[in-house]
């Protein structure tokens, strides 16, 4: 896949039977995603119990050491590709590689 975008989600069960859900949008280029617009929700059995919460509130709901967040690669993968392309460009300019001279 050369390019893609969409929505992903992650879930964590809570002690009261509810579920903490993280939804986020992403853009992907050459398998290197960048996530954005992260939102946390607490989902109950009834639709009327569903509520959006802040990142800080989501962190407080789970045990210490558990981070309800986007995986590292989904968060920064696209920036890795950008840095790699810039490094190759600088290498090309400074060394004259692949110019035949």
Description:
- This protein is α+β, with helices and mostly antiparallel strands and 101 residues long.
- It has one domain.
- Helices cover 31% and strands 37% of the residues.
- It contains two helices and four strands, in the order ββββαα.
- It has helices spanning 55-61, 72-95; strands spanning 3-13, 19-29, 32-43, 51-53.
- A four-stranded antiparallel beta sheet has the order 1-2-3-4.
- A hairpin with a 2-residue loop joins strand 2 (19-29) and strand 3 (32-43).
- The chain is elongated, with a radius of gyration of 20 Å.
- It starts with a strand and ends in a 6-residue tail after the last helix.
Uncertain runs: none
| Alpha-beta classification | alpha+beta
Strand content: 35-45%
Topology as a string of helices (H) and strands (E): EEEEHH
- State the helicity in percent bands: 25-40%
Q: How many angstroms does the end-to-end distance come to?
A: 36 Å
Rg, Cα atoms, Å: 20 Å
**Alpha plus pi helix count:** 2
Shape designation: elongated
Give me the count of strands.
4
* Side-by-side strand order of the widest sheet: 1-2-3-4
